[in-house]
Structure formats: C-alpha cells, structure tokens
Write a structure and sequence with these properties.
binds N-((E,2S,3R)-1,3-dihydroxyoctadec-4-EN-2-yl)palmitamide; alpha+beta; globular; single chain
Length: 258
Amino acid sequence: DRLKTGPVVPVTPPPTSPASQHRLWPEIENVVKSQVNMAKMGIGECGAGWQLFAEDGEMKMYRREEEVDGMVCDPLKAVHVVKGISGHEVCHYFFNPQYRYDWESTLEHMTVLETISEDTLVFLQTHKRIWPASQREGLFWSHIRKLPNEKDRDGPDIWTVVNNSTEYSEHPANNGKCVRIFLTVCLLCQTTVDPPKDGTTLTRDNLSCKITYCSVVNPGGWAPASVLRAVYKREYPKFLKRFTAYVKNQTKNKPIMF
Ligand code: 16C
C-alpha cells in the first residue's frame, strides 16, 4: 500500500530566510535583539549617567563619557520626532546603499562587500580624515527588519536597522593607511498615525515618526580625546538633521510607504 501513496513529502519547513544559513546569522540575530531592546528603553530606564549634549526642537542627544584602553568610546543615544515620514521610509533610506552618498557627509568611499540577503548587507566604508588623526574605515554588516507593534497590534509596524562591525579575512584591519573603527549602531523607528477626524484620506500631515538612534564607536587607535568629542558633538546633530531632512525631501511627493 505504501508504494501507491507516491513520493514522500519532506516535513522540514524551509528556512525563513536564506540568510539564516550564513556564518554571521547567529550573531546578527543576537545583536539585533539586544540592540532593539536597549533602543526601546527611555533615557531614564537605561541607567544613570546620560548627559544631554545637543538639543534642537524635538531632537535630543545624550552621551555617556566612557573610555576603553584610554580611547574615547562614548555611547550616544538620540531621540527625534519628525512629521510627515514613516518609520519604514526612514529605515529604507538609511539601509539602502544607493542613497548613502546623498546624506552621509563623513563618507569618502563605500563598497558593498557581500549581499547576504535582501535585508542584510556587508559594507566597507572609508571616512573623511580628521586632523591630526589617521583616516578611519569601518567594515560592518547592516540588517533591516520589520518588528511587530506590541503596544498597538493594529498600529503601523516598527522598523529597525542595526549596523555592527565584523571581520573579513580578505580585508584585514589596519594593513593600509586607514585605522579600522568598531561600531554598533541601532536606528529604531516608530510611526504614529493621527487619522483625519472628518474621514478624509490620510496624508503626510497625519504622520509622525519617533526616531531613536543609538551608537557606540571605538576609534580603534589613538585619537586625541578633545578632538574626538568636539567632532562627534558637531557631527551627530548634523547627521540626524541632514538625514531626516533628506528623507522628508525624498518622500514628499511619493505615496506613504508603511
Ligand atoms: O550611522 C551612521 N551612518 C551609517 C552609514 O554610514 C553607519 C556608519 C557609521 C560610521 C560612524 C563613524 C564614522 C566616523 C569616522 C570619522 C568621522 C569623520 C568626520 C569628518 C568631519 C570632516 O552606521 C551615521 C553616522 C554619523 C557619524 C557622526 C560622526 C561620529 C564621529 C565619531 C568619532 C569617530 C572616531 C574617529 C577617530 C578619528
């Protein structure tokens, strides 16, 4: 009788994403989960020691002064609320390499070393040199993900991009003119919709996006602490203002991407 039932159908379901077979996948899963949990915490909840160092309208930037082996590695946590854009749009422009030169003003050169999957890329980037330090480069995986909205199940999804340094034997650190930096970055975006009272169609005026940006950059080699702190105090606010203005400008005449 068994012979009449035809071929045996495999019972193992296929993997959710081809990326799950990649050597970096367990690390990506762990880092994304822990970074998202930390980014979701308010400034008061994630321990003492956060100092406000920049503020402009809705944008607030906090840092904690920390050194590792004498190198400034101050963690940064920024929150911003921007009207007229969605979290998916913010993450789309932050993740996709085709837009990077448009908004990343510290960038000198960028290459995609590997496409692990549609949502996971590996980047090698060189950044502009800061006098008197050596030029810096970063090699990191970048992953974009949609997260369920646990507080409002019918509300828009939450979106995140996590960037984290990694190593490639084909590109060893510190064997050229650049010093390799180590970075962990998490961008977390929550969209709020305030629908029009009169039942008319939703427009960008009904949208706002709460952005949380967390970053830790280890300069990877000597750089004067005073120069480094002065540079990031100037560059982080410049980045968040320039990048969000770019997303507003790119999306203003496009349908909303939820
Ligand atoms: O997250 C951001 N961008 C992503 C996509 O590019 C990605 C990259 C992060 C790299 C962040 C560090 C780059 C610093 C290199 C040197 C800075 C040059 C400044 C030149 C000024 C003429 O996640 C947005 C990143 C926004 C970057 C703000 C700058 C932070 C400086 C931190 C200090 C770095 C140590 C440099 C040691 C000399």
